[in-house]
Request: fold
Amino acid sequence: MDELGTRGQLREIGRDECLELVASKAVGHIGYCSIRGAVILPVNHAVIGGEIVVRIAPSGQTARFLSDNGPGVDMTFQADDFDESSETGWSVLVTGTVQSVEQESLDQVNDRPVPWVAGGIWDYVRIHPNRVTGRRLVST
Reply:
């Protein structure tokens, strides 16, 4: 049999499971289109109330993008996990609008995103999902 005939299959993942999978990971990627082109950056995140919450540096390029484009701008978020030995895994893509989050509103939240990068000054933003899609690669 042809080697490609024994490969895995892609299966769609429902919205709720997609958000559970995203919540199981500490790192994902945000993506947006700036005037200089596409930007994709790794971020620490949390899923809070069905929204993706990330911390950004107040003086970083994402903060500048949000300042230049105002609240409600579109942004994507992607998280995945793969096992190369079994050739299985999953990938979730969230497309939505971004809003700033006041840190005080997260003070009582235990699962807010914790950055891996040193530093004490962070802004929070939340991506309100307008579209959530996911795929799982399963072995056959």
Observations:
- The chain has a mean pLDDT of 86.
- The first helix runs from residue 15 to 23.
- The helical segments are 15-23, 61-69.
- The chain has one domain: 10-138.
